[in-house]
TrEMBL record, chain A:
It comes from Pseudomonas extremorientalis. It is a multi-pass membrane protein. Its main location: membrane. It is found in: Cell membrane. This is Iron(III) transport system permease protein. The chain crosses the membrane at residues 23-42, 77-97, 109-130, 145-167, 203-225, 245-270, 291-317, 352-372, 384-406, 418-437, 483-502, 522-545. Belongs to the binding-protein-dependent transport system permease family. Keywords: Membrane, Transmembrane, Transmembrane helix, Transport. It holds the Pfam family BPD_transp_1. Residues 71-267, 348-543 form the ABC transmembrane type-1 domain. InterPro entries: AminoethylPonate_ABC_perm-1, MetI-like, MetI-like_sf. PROSITE patterns: ABC_TM1. Signal peptide: none annotated.
From TrEMBL, chain B:
One of its GO terms (molecular function) is metal ion binding. Fe cation binds at residue 225. It holds the Pfam family SBP_bac_6. PANTHER family: ABC TRANSPORTER SUBSTRATE-BINDING PROTEIN, THIAMINE-BINDING PERIPLASMIC PROTEIN-RELATED. GO terms for biological process: thiamine transport. One of its GO terms (cellular component) is outer membrane-bounded periplasmic space. InterPro entries: ABC_2-AEP-bd, Ferric-bd. Keywords: Iron, Metal-binding, Signal. The keyword Metal-binding applies. It comes from the Bacteria. Residues 1-21 form the signal peptide. Gene3D superfamilies: Periplasmic binding protein-like II. This is Iron(III) transport system substrate-binding protein. It comes from Pseudomonas extremorientalis.
UniProtKB/TrEMBL annotation, chain C:
InterPro entries: AAA+_ATPase, ABC_SmlMolc_Importer, ABC_transporter-like_ATP-bd, ABC_transporter-like_CS, AminoethylPonate_ABC_PhnT2, Mo/tungstate-bd_C_term_dom, P-loop_NTPase, Transp-assoc_OB_typ2. This is Iron(III) transport system ATP-binding protein. GO terms for cellular component: ATP-binding cassette (ABC) transporter complex. GO terms for molecular function: ATP binding; ATP hydrolysis activity; transmembrane transporter activity. GO terms for biological process: quaternary ammonium group transport. The lineage of its organism: Bacteria, Pseudomonadati, Pseudomonadota, Gammaproteobacteria, Pseudomonadales. It comes from the Bacteria. The keyword Zinc-finger does not apply. Keywords: ATP-binding, Cell inner membrane, Cell membrane, Membrane, Nucleotide-binding, Translocase, Transport.
Length: 564, 341, 354
């Protein structure tokens, strides 16, 4: 019997799609993740003159009083921020998931505001609120510059990150457990202790670690409101950008990698030990009405939202004020970026390009990569390598990744050096930086699909890539749009890695914010931050609208789809 | 293993770099104020339509560090507007291409490198200035300082901002001037005392004046350009020229050795030293490298030029490293008032 | 029925398939012949390897060693696309975003648009779903979804049909009906079919032959009747239907000692010197005519009414503490309260296992 020709063609096509796709992914991950990380260690331990690296320099650094001071500051700030943010975010998440307060969608949307702007924005707003000429200066005895300025700024910046983890942890609740508890006469407090807390404490730990890591590696807030209270992340930035001491930067980068690696390891260990406690048959939890409880939680939520609104409103307002604090008339003068330092409109246009490229290229690459890893059987070793490599970025702070890129791509003799300072490299770096979260979204969506879809397609002699485009992508469209949104907003606001990689042609809006603030043009910095904020929020709303439209159009088959 | 990569890289670069531009693209490093760049670039490109300037701008210290770090593989073709003390260091490292611009004979002999042809040629002079916010002074009951020594008075505790000399050229010329006028020991003693009153050290030389203008900190140690500009914009500022004398430096131009665009870079050096360029500088600075063009600025006293101290650039650039190391050791990241928190 | 609906089924041969997952042996040297047009069931408990065997045949798992033949082609190493079979999954794996029409036409690439439409119409007619072309799978009942999935599997006219627990997602009511329907359809089309199930009723109802599997091995491969009446191994005896086990030792070629009883065996009962005797509950008769062989006194423990028949639990007086089961017509049941009875275990019903 002879085979139909289309079969062999489909077969070749699939091999190219599957094996080629995986190899391409491996190559990209190698270049974009592995090599830059290795470069950090290589730079940190090579004792080239004037670079501040090497073992001797490392010992000197670690034993110096200055380093201890910086490390102490970083730890104090990060622990304080985590200790403040996690309980607040827990209360907020609890209010949204386990009570019947009104207006949940509004509060939820408001709580995400800090994700839409670079981390400098809360700092700038704090200066206008509590600086020496701040609107609410009278409320504080000392000015905002220093420890409390950094802590407040970071609390606002990291709040939504912690909130998202806790929201998803609190969204999973088995109503049957609560029914059982109340039938045994347990008080709500007891039910919380014995059901809710054990089910969410791991998420609390994860949120704590995330906030800690984000804070210890962020320099956007310290650079604006830190004053002379310096932290390690700022020191790494100054060492590389200010003094061109790459080795010293690499050493501090390695130090900053430790807490992230540690929390990542502990989190993975906890996850393995506890496993998944939710059974597939869990009943959806419906909170019972309680006026007193809802009133309490509504107060908390309103207070937190009021603070966020105050901070972000202040940033927007300050960008419109002509000459703070002596001429409070409103104007768009600060939006005339062409006449000021920092890159002007070019920076904004570049950021749009970066965000668009990152979102479009990144989502296609990441979703396809996740598909190949999840849904194809062969190449076990390759799959394992891909899976491990794609988890690395989660444990690597953007600051450290950016340093790695400088070291690897600026290497003498590296043919990839031609990308140094180009938009291409910025796109690659941004995709790599935000890879893991996006991939986890993709993987979760893919795992909800019937495991036999691919087998069915193969038995029907349909090429896999056709099946991917015709069936998988349409079904997962909402998740895909979510990835696009996440990557766009992240690319729009990121400064941690990009600060090391831009050139005058590829300067970014978030970097311009930093530069303008550095030059004392705080109004311009506020204006650019506001622009980023509105762009991110606008695109997010647009994508949410598109996603809802897509869902509505596909309602016919989505409502009762089998196997989902 | 890098061969196929190189091929891919080459193909991709074709897209990321605009290789088809007919104009010479000249990468110019600068520490000039951003507001000035547009005018200068436009004037130069009008005079030299075949050359296009690509700016890389940052604070003096950072541009200097960047140039030094790129010593083996220079990215810059020329430098337009960097402290002479920094250019002297680059010259010592053999990184500058000595060149005599067309109008070199018109340049004052104090405002160019002594070698012939010179490694760098001056544009203008910028000098230390105290920006003093009169509105805040009245509100907080501060007396107006008239000398550097006044700034160490306890009444100014936490009210003063100055640029970090490691990153800012203005910061460095302040420190270098204090060490030269007060002497080494008294100079450091003075800075120890001043440190007690500093509210913040900042990254750039213009930021202290901007902070003073907005009243965030009433006193900013800065230089005259932002002070004059901000005053013209209506900021409640007094421009104070301390009576001990002003530290100063020359903004200068140089050609980087080994540049692929030597012609264009030399055109830039020619333009920078030309009377046409001086006409541009004159709007921003009161002292220019070509004598006789400058016009007095109403915000500054007529005897402004006489108030500049006698500045030993050779000494300053030779000792720059050790001064900065000492400064960092004393004041960077060891502020007592924050250590207590 | 239209002969163009399928190609004639091809015979399939499985030769010495070996498959391990780490330390676990999923398939241990499995061989199986399926004749053209035959319906064979792979029956066994979960983990016995039946699904793995199906997936190996489908090319979804790669066997460690052994060969697979479809018709006269060696398909052992071919990818799934090149093997020429249709498969119906437990979940049906219908693509939810495609209409019934598009699902059925999914495998019909390379044909013209009209051809595809015609073929889809043919298949819908075959499974009795004409008129549902534009519906989405989510709008159909479970039984209808199964038929769409079947139509999709058959549309490209494969020479082998694989069914992976096709009935398990359906409720018991429609299950039997669909089993019969599927069986009729298969007969009609004459397509070689291999079906995996853990449900012996389904297997009995549908299969030409059943391969009972356990621990990665085929324990017995025979017709349903043979499997039930002459189980080849204790596992098959136990897994298929119900049974009684009696410990014995051999007295002679024709007799076995069971407790205090001497039981006569049939000539072909088996050779083992000692072990267990196996006896189906419905083979046992209660209070039979006195001339019956192997007649022993017993004590009734419990009687359960099952509708069309009754189940009685009892103990042989000479084998106390060893409850046995008998299934009888209700009218053959001992009268209520009669605790002591006589039971006969006919020699032909006793099978010897070592």
């Amino acid at each position: 019997m002879t085979l139909p020709r289309q079969v062999s063609r489909a077969e070749t096509g699939d091999r190219v799609f599957v094996v080629g796709g995986k190899l391409l992914w491996l190559l990209l991950l190698g270049i974009a993740v592995l090599m830059p990380l290795l470069a950090i260690f290589w730079r940190g331990f090579s004792s080239e003159a004037g670079q501040g690296g090497g073992l001797v320099a490392a010992r000197e650094l670690v034993t110096s009083a200055n380093f201890h001071w910086l490390l102490g500051n970083s730890l104090k700030v990060s622990l304080s921020v985590a200790a403040i943010v996690v309980p607040l975010a827990y209360l907020f998440a609890y209010a949204l998931q386990r009570t019947l307060i009104p207006g949940k969608a509004i509060w939820r949307g408001m709580s995400l505001l800090p994700l839409m702007a670079p981390s400098m924005l809360p700092g700038i707003a704090l200066v206008y609120l509590f600086g020496n000429q701040g609107m609410l200066r009278g409320l504080l005895s000392e000015n905002i510059y220093g420890f409390w300025g950094i802590v407040l700024g970071e609390v606002i910046y990291t709040f939504p990150h912690a909130l998202m983890i806790l929201l998803s942890a609190l969204s999973l609740a088995d109503a049957r457990l609560f029914d059982a508890a109340s039938s045994m006469g347990a008080s709500p407090a007891r039910a919380f202790r014995s059901i809710t807390w054990p089910a969410t404490r791991q998420a609390v730990f994860a949120a704590f670690c995330l906030v800690f890591t984000l804070t210890i590696t962020d320099f956007g807030v310290p650079v604006v409101v830190g004053g002379d209270y310096q932290v390690l992340a700022l020191e790494a930035y100054k060492a590389v950008v200010g003094q061109q001491q790459f080795g010293r930067g690499a050493l501090i980068g390695m130090v900053l990698l430790l807490p992230a690696l540690f929390s990542f390891g502990v989190d993975a260990w906890l996850r393995r030990r506890h496993g998944d406690s939710m059974s597939g048959r869990a009943q959806v939890f419906q909170p019972v009405p309680s006026a007193l409880r809802d009133a309490c939680y509504l107060t908390i939520v309103l207070l937190i939202c009021a603070v966020l609104l105050l901070v972000f409103g202040m940033a927007v307002y300050s960008s419109l004020v002509k000459f703070w604090p002596y001429n409070l008339s409103l104007s768009l003068n600060h939006y005339q970026f062409e006449d000021t330092a920092g890159g002007g409109w070019l920076a904004y246009r570049n950021s749009l390009t970066l965000a668009l490229c990152t979102a479009l290229i990144g989502s296609v690459l990441i979703f396809t990569g996740a598909y190949l890893m999840e849904k194809t059987k062969g190449q076990k070793g390759l799959n394992l390598a891909l899976r491990m490599l794609s988890f690395v970025p989660m444990a690597v702070p953007g600051l450290v990744l950016g340093l790695g890129y400088v070291f690897f791509f600026n290497l003498n003799g590296n043919p990839l050096h031609v990308f140094y300072g180009t938009m291409t490299l910025l796109v690659v770096c941004t995709i790599a930086h935000y890879l893991t979260t996006a991939q986890m979204t993709a993987t979760t969506a893919l795992r909800q699909l019937d495991a036999e879809f691919e087998a069915a397609a193969l038995s029907l002699k349909a090429p896999l890539y056709r099946h991917y485009l015709k069936v998988t992508v349409p079904i997962c469209l909402p998740a895909l749009l979510d990835i696009v949104r996440y990557l766009f907003v992240s690319a729009m606001t990121t400064v941690s890695a990009a600060i090391f990689l831009y050139s005058p042609d590829t300067i970014l809006a978030a970097v311009a914010v930093l530069n303008m603030d550095d030059a004392g043009n705080v109004g311009g910095a506020a204006a650019m931050s506001t622009l980023i904020l509105f762009t991110s929020a606008g695109v997010s709303l647009l994508l949410a609208w598109a996603s809802r439209g897509a869902l509505r159009r596909s309602q016919a088959w989505r409502q009762t789809a089998p196997g989902q | 293993m890098f061969k196929p990569l190189a091929l891919v890289a080459a193909v991709l670069t074709a897209f990321s770099v605009n290789a088809f531009a007919a104009k010479t693209e000249l990468t110019v490093y600068t520490a000039l104020e951003a507001e000035q760049l547009k005018t200068y670039k436009k004037a130069f490109e009008q005079a030299n339509p075949d050359v296009e300037i690509k700016w890389v701008r940052d604070s003096t210290g950072i541009i200097t560090a960047k140039l030094l770090a790129e010593k083996d593989r220079p990215q810059a073709d020329a430098v337009w507007g960097l402290a002479a003390s920094s250019l002297a260091i680059l010259d010592q490292q053999g990184m500058l291409d000595n060149y005599a611009p067309k109008d070199l004979d018109k340049i004052g002999k104090n405002y160019r490198d002594a070698a012939n042809p010179p490694a760098w040629v001056g544009m203008d002079v910028w000098a230390a200035t105290i920006c003093f916010n009169t509105v805040e002074a009245e509100k907080q009951g501060l007396t107006k300082p008239v000398s550097w020594q006044d700034l160490t008075k306890p009444e100014y505790k936490g009210k003063i901002v100055m640029p970090n000399p490691a990153s800012s050229g203005t910061g460095f010329l302040d420190v270098s001037a204090w060490l030269q006028t007060f002497g080494d020991k008294q100079g450091w003693q003075y800075m120890d005392d001043l440190h007690q009153n500093i509210g913040q050290y900042v990254h750039s030389g213009s930021k202290p004046c901007k902070l003073a203008a907005s009243g965030e900190f009433p006193i900013g140690i800065s230089f005259e350009y932002p002070a004059v500009q901000l005053k013209r914009q209506g900021a409640p500022l007094d421009i104070i020229l301390p009576k001990e004398g002003l530290g100063w430096d020359i903004e200068a131009t140089a050609v980087i050795k080994g540049t692929a665009h030597k012609d264009a870079a030399q055109k830039l050096a020619d333009f920078s030293a030309s009377p046409a360029a001086m006409e541009l500088y004159k709007d921003n600075f009161a002292v220019l490298a070509q004598p006789g063009i400058a016009k007095p600025q109403t915000e500054l006293p007529a005897d402004y030029e006489q108030r500049l101290i006698k500045n030993d650039f050779a000494w300053a650039s030779k000792n720059r490293d050790s001064i900065l190391t000492e400064w960092r050791k004393r004041y960077d990241g060891k502020s007592e008032k924050v250590a207590g928190q | 029925m239209n002969t163009a609906l399928t190609q004639p089924g091809a015979p399939m041969k499985v030769r010495g398939i070996q498959k391990r997952f780490g330390a676990f042996t999923a398939l241990d040297n499995v061989s199986l012949d399926v004749a053209a047009g035959e319906l064979v069931c792979l029956l066994g408990p979960s983990g016995c390897g039946k699904t793995t065997l199906l997936r190996c045949i489908a090319g979804l798992e790669r066997q460690d060693s052994g060969e697979l033949y479809l018709g006269d082609r060696d398909v052992s190493l071919l990818p799934p696309q090149a093997r020429d079979y249709g498969i119906l999954f437990q979940s049906y794996a219908l693509f939810p975003n495609l209409t019934v029409e598009a699902n059925i036409g999914y495998g019909l690439t390379g044909s013209g648009r009209d051809e595809v439409r015609q073929r889809v119409g043919q298949m819908l007619e075959l499974v009795g779903l004409v008129g549902s072309e534009k519906k989405y799978p989510g709008q159909l009942s479970g039984g209808q979804q199964q038929r769409v999935a079947l139509a999709r599997a058959l549309a490209p006219a494969p020479s082998l049909l694989l069914l992976d627990e096709p009935m398990s997602a359906l409720d018991a009511r429609v299950r039997e009906h669909l089993c019969t329907e599927l069986r009729q359809l298969q007969r009609c089309l004459g397509i070689t079919t291999l079906m995996v199930t853990h449900n012996q009723d389904e297997a009995m109802l549908m299969a030409d032959r059943i391969a009972v599997m356990n621990n990665g091995k085929v324990e017995q491969y025979a017709t349903p009747q043979e499997i039930y009446d002459r189980p080849a191994t204790p596992f098959v005896a136990e897994f298929v239907g119900q049974g009684n086990w009696l410990p014995f030792s051999r007295n002679s070629a024709s007799h076995a000692q069971v407790g205090g009883m001497n039981m006569r065996l049939a000539d072909d009962a088996g050779m083992a010197k000692s072990g267990r005797l196996f006896c189906r509950p419905e083979a046992i008769s209660v209070n039979p005519p006195v001339h019956e062989e192997n007649l022993f006194p017993a004590k009734v423990r419990e009687i359960t009414f099952l509708g069309n028949r009754c189940r009685m639990s009892f103990e042989l007086e000479q084998l106390p503490g060893h409850p046995l089961l008998a299934e009888l017509a209700p009218e053959a049941m001992p009268r209520l309260g009669a605790q002591h009875i006589w039971v006969a275990l006919p020699p032909r019903s006793l099978q010897v296992f070592a």
